[in-house]
Amino acid sequence: MSQAISTILAVAILSLATAGCGHYPAPIRSARDIDRASSSENMVVLVSLPLEDWPKLQKFIGLEHFRVAEEMASQITDDHIKALSRLQMPKLRQVSLAHCSKVTDDGLQALSNIPSIQGLQLIGIGITDRGLRTLATGFPNLIGINIEGCRLLTVNGFLSLTNSTTITDVGLSIDPFTQEQIESIISTVTNVTWWTISDPRHRLNHSSLRQLGESRKITIQVADENNFVAGITRAQQGGPTNGSQPSRPE
Fold first, then answer.
1. Please, what is the average pLDDT of the chain?
2. How much is the pTM?
């Protein structure tokens, strides 16, 4: 697997969890699954779980990776995220809420109660610029975020990421922005050194991006409609810091 593919933004709950150890996240479909699972489980995927049973996830005190499966994503609301945020999970570092479109700024604010989080997969959730400001200042250990498909975000919201002292890896979509706006974001948010841009309609001028990336000595990657990632620049070596960036879904 190429470095470009292995280091892209994506839900590392499967890719990181299974690499080298042969261990898969425990699928949770009911309270019975929680009862049956080992309390030492450090990664779970919620496939189906009623809100009233979310407090039972406290059993996994050492949980490191938490993912909502795509088939459950449409059911997830801020109330679910608030229930998660009330749990004591000091080791939780990777959270994937991809395609949970009903999750808003309020849910993200609640999630900031878990300070250990390093990577957030937030593709297609319903946050606004207020949520981006929460990401920038409310998560003391946050390094990587994937906010592709979050169509309520504006350029001003992205510029608030300059207030972060920890975020270095960001995934976003070209839509609804122009090339000039994308380049303005990259030029202004100087703390981010690894960008992955979703461009399914091939709107981006790669030559212009390459020039920008090389001048700033940062890495820029572009993902097409098939989720294939092409490296525009290769200034940064070794990929996102410590694998803390959640990876792209297939």
1. 88
2. 0.86
